[in-house]
């Protein structure tokens, strides 16, 4: 349904715009986030059945998406996000002269490589969190590797983002036909789908005559119907999601004049406690962290776990969230 949208009303064989390129790449992360949210809800409501699927969502999604994108390349001439925006790859992966190794390389850079990058980012966040909490229990060589990774990953991420940005700028200025370093690495470019490519039977023209057996043709026809069903489902699902999002914002945007509930009075704070004592553990603070909803300062591990479990300030009772934790740094730490 979406492939017949107005954004495809361009001449066949023309190069895509930078907006189409960025749009199809953003669709990849949007789909992954949407499916992750669905599995999160399923796991919260039925942890026995869906808890394991949610825990290993990234790995399972990567495997399923790799198979789906491989089939989509062979049937439609491009990855799903690309054909969704009316684009296909050159050379056309449906052509029998394009090897399976070439198609698998495209799938690796489109699906597996982003997964590896996401795992690198997750590892960096975990190590940084442990280091900031003072629970950095790595020893000897492993500790040195972890500390090196804390310094290496931000530099790598910065350099990668700058390379991607430079390719976007060069592509927008028509200085290169490659919109990303990965496309340049595989010597692949994008072009618009033609009217023939949009027909339901376009894939049949690419089956070699020696392979046009009834069983093989039926199998590919079933996969083509499946791919079309997925496209239609995502198109309708995206519309419904946007409608629900608009409706929810419309309902929540109604101004309420009811007064906010008055929180209970703060607990009495003993003057015998020193200014560097944590109100929770009653010991000298470590990793000083202020709770912006009340202004009190705690140890980071103490206040993090308390707010995570109770969603309020332990001293005042004011409603609080983890986003209101503010790390404090002293001049001697720099």
TrEMBL record:
Instruction: Name the SUPFAM superfamilies for this protein.
Output: RING/U-box
Classification via Gene3D superfamilies: Zinc/RING finger domain, C3HC4 (zinc finger)
Which segments cross the bilayer?
A: 155-173, 222-248
| Location (main, coarse) | membrane
Q: Which GO terms describe its biological process?
A: protein import into peroxisome matrix; protein monoubiquitination
Q: Which InterPro entries match?
A: PEX12 (IPR017375), Pex_N (IPR006845), Znf_RING/FYVE/PHD (IPR013083)
**Top-rank lineage group of the source organism:** Eukaryota
Q: Does the keyword DNA repair apply?
A: no
Annotated compartments:
Peroxisome membrane
Keywords in alphabetical order:
Membrane, Metal-binding, Peroxisome, Protein transport, Transmembrane, Transmembrane helix, Transport, Zinc, Zinc-finger
Q: Where is the Pex N-terminal domain?
A: 24-249
- Pfam (any one): Pex2_Pex12
Any one GO molecular function term: zinc ion binding
- Membrane topology of this protein: Multi-pass membrane protein
CDD domains linked: mRING_PEX12
* Cellular component GO terms held in the UniProt record: peroxisomal importomer complex; peroxisomal membrane
Q: In which pathway does it act?
A: Protein modification; protein ubiquitination
* Entry function: Component of a retrotranslocation channel required for peroxisome organization by mediating export of the PEX5 receptor from peroxisomes to the cytosol, thereby promoting PEX5 recycling.
- State the family it belongs to: Belongs to the pex2/pex10/pex12 family.
The protein's name is: Peroxisome assembly protein 12
